[in-house]
User: Fold these one by one.
Assistant:
Number 1:
Amino acid sequence: MLYDRRPQAEDISQIIKDHLYLVDILVGRMVTQVPTFMNSDDMKSAGMLGLFDAAKRFDPAKNIKFKTFAEYRIRGAILDEMRKLDWFSRSLRDKQNRVGKTIFSLELKLGRDPEDYEVAEAMELSLDEYQSLLAEVSHLGCVSLNETLDSSEEGRSFIDSITDEKSEILPGARIEQQQLTEKMASILEQLSKKERLVVALYYYEELTQKEISEVLDLSEGRVSQLHSQALIKLKTKLATQIY
């Protein structure tokens, strides 16, 4: 069997062939969130490197499925390629963090989730300027949610906590990860109804932005804004609770 022992040199080619479909699946999920200058071919090339790396590094002794391990490696390789392209600049990071801190401060002050116009006012922006800012940092959501919450190779990420994938988990981390998923579920309840719907349709139902806009009868631009704002809130809320 290929998956009950460390892969040997002669195993790697077959393992890669058996799991090429994972690259296509992950690229399909992430392609709508990346900048236009990074096309699906770029993503597939990076994903293939991640799959190859997973095939070389897989260790069944860690009690985790190869598919789960490979998904982390493929996704991580795609994100690494984005970083090499210097896609998410420091200025965009700063803007995203500013939005998150403003929303968090308003929640403490108001005792509720702030409306868009309230966030815009606190940032001394018009509503249109604020929504344009959300569109500008929207692609950062893909990276933010895929960042791991710990330094281990199998560490769960924000997105894993949202989707709650039923994968094999190391026994020592099972309780901690269950608590993390429960925290994420609690935080999701704090989002607005439309934000929750966008998150559910995108990450649970795996609909495209266009399909979500049709389901919710909203423009694609508005769906993008809701998605971006929801991810900023999730990242900020979860970070303040964990760290």
Note: The domain at 1-87 is CATH 1.10.1740.10 (Rna Polymerase Sigma Factor; Chain: A).
Number 2:
Amino acid sequence: MKWKILEKGGFIGSILEAIPLPILVVDEDVRIFWYNQSAAPLLGLEPDLVFLKRGGEVLHCLHAVESTEGCGRTEFCKDCPIRNSVQQSINGQRVVRKQNKMRMVEKDRVVEMNLLVTTAPFAYQDESLVLLILEDISELMELKGIVPICAYCKRIRDDEAFWQSVENYFKVHLNLNFSHGVCPDCAKKLYPDLHE
């Protein structure tokens, strides 16, 4: 690797390796120059097969796989959320947690991945580069879909047909805690003397 500052054991490289999010260093054509160990499962290839390849090709973007020219060369690429975020950063802007969907080919089937894309520009050794961070929020988006809830007691059914309180369901699935209060309408019903 030509940049010693990112080498394993180097100060910056060690910091980036410790971050538990997939981080890539890319150029304006989304060619991958470096990635951290958290990105390795997402990329799924040996390092030699990743470096200087375009992101859509390595991530198995549906459109990059369908095209003989690869990532960035199809009619759909002009709307690519990753490519557009990288281009914004090449032009000096930061993109922070922009929600996007990406269709990828995985084991001969098309899967949709919901991502938060963050990009930030930086220059190193006279090259304009972009720090690209990808957060997979697919599980969260599934949860955002349809949640089976009892019309009477308001408990939620999980995947194993176990009914649990709304508070517990969100604690387990989203690590959220609730604080409790009484809304104005319920306060009128429950405490009519106090409300007036």
Note: The longest helix spans residues 81-90.
Number 3:
Amino acid sequence: MIRVDAESFRLAEVFTISRGSRTEAKVLTVRIERDGVVGWGECVPYARYDETLESVAGEIRGLPDGIDRVALQAALPAGAARNAVDCALWDLEAKRAGKRVWELAGLRRPGPEITCFTLSLDTPEKMQEAAARHAHRPVLKIKLGTPDDMARLEAVRRGAPDARIVVDANEGWTAEVYSELAPHLLRLGVAMVEQPLPAGQDDLLGEIARPLPVCADESCHDRASLPELKGKYDMVNIKLDKTGGLTEALALRDAARAEGYQVMVGCMVGTSLAMAPAVLVAQGAEVTDLDGPLLLAEDRDVPLAFDERGVHPSEPGLWG
């Protein structure tokens, strides 16, 4: 039996990117029960990809009860619906086998990974205050993509002079704007810039200088995306809601590395249940951005642990 439920989790504070603001994380929780054992997973439908809670729930409810992970890959396209079901099936398999998912997948025992902490888009003054509050965190991720980006970036660097900084432009720049900003990003010690140009309009990245690594987010969904990235990007951001689950995420990671890309593992704003499978993909990644639970005011009953060593793998009581 496949059950899907819409749930909301309050955020600790308003979260804003160039596309808008939110006060809660709206997720779909999938539970698959077989022989009295229940596996579960979570997805975050994303309007950027024409997904809604209702449309994704409909895709999931249309699946046959006995579907397995192999059949699932063909039954649904890469996206949020397949992600939640794929992760629930991995959890179910692990519970029925009495093993951890990393064992079933043939992976090494996972450990903690240092994760970014994302600063919401705000005025330069408020972003400086936020950076100062979180200056103890080793990596800060800044959401940009507006005409006032330099003032915000300068303010964050003043607030957190020692933190590593990565920038997410959320498709908000043109090639000209990026070329103008790149020297300043280097001056301020930015380690990487994510998706500076809109997906589908990023060919110019292959023609202009890339003085710091450029990461594909909206331009990279699964392995089928890789041919279009050649010569334009240096890194790929793997998100399970884009790949359609852990199965494809692991395959994309290996394929991307084989083609010379660095790896970032990111997330939508979701709970620890959504992050748990991604922690397995993030092992050894150049950038890990699995801070969703840190942005929440409430989480799952058995949340992921975060400390100075980063985000830790899930306990069996959560997932996997």
Note: The chain is about 30% helix and 25% strand.
Number 4:
Amino acid sequence: MLIETTRDVFKLAQVFTISRGSRTEAKVLTVRIADDGVQGWGECVPYARYGETMESVEAQINGLPEVFDRGALMELLPAGAARNAVDCALWDIEAKRAGKRVWQLAGLAKPGPEITAYTLSLDTPEKMRDQAAKHAFRPLLKIKLGTPDDMARLEAVRAGAPDVRIIVDANEGWSPEIYTDLAPHLQHLGVVLVEQPLPAGQDGALIDMQRPVPVCADESCHDRDSLAGLKGKYDVINIKLDKTGGLTEALKLRDAARDQGYGVMVGCMVGSSLAMAPATLVAQGALVVDLDGPLLLAEDRETPLTFDADGVHPPEAELWG
């Protein structure tokens, strides 16, 4: 197999801010694998929060042997961005060889559109209210929070979009005291889900806390091995392919989580339609879908995903799978 990596940059439609910082572009790594005249591709977003860089992810991919399959890949690379892009590229090759779609090869039902959240980045309450009003036509908004002064922001968003469902992502930015203070207000303001209120590794306090709004593990959940450490702390898990290391593990994590009684959210890093394409298969029937990466971009892949009133649609074969 011939493996090629390229670094691609997609401009964002506007500055995107979370509690860890701001960005104006999405930097992704595109992986193309050619095997016997068939080419497949995938995309990943190396994430500094997990100790990943473009260089480290490229090194992992370049260190792979000349011959391997998806099963061997699970042993060759750990869960993370590098394995994700390679795994998804291999799925793409398999589908092209078989003349079928990936969902058929995986034994899944034919996928359809799923309503996705649209993310409002962290800003002043006034600007977040304006953002919310601009996007009040959307059925589900996600708010990036994670500071000690989040109540005013949440109230402003609710004022700007009084009828939408809201989910909140604290990105590990709260302390137990802040979360305890905010939790009843979140419920009062109609928040339906809270992502990762406490830092991963410091979330044991959630066991003894009331959770009036379901709490979702994001940074605390990567793959099936994570599930044992979530018991009693979380109600929902957020599956991201850059954390699971690809579609193969994401589907297994989804099934295992549901078997253990967790609700499932399917999320994303900020990437192009190529990154979201395989995630749309995992997102079928999820409690919450957050695959709005392409909606945040000013530019996208040549064959992008379709977003409309029905939500995010599965990819056309020209894009992936």
Note: Residues 81-98 form the longest helix (18 residues).
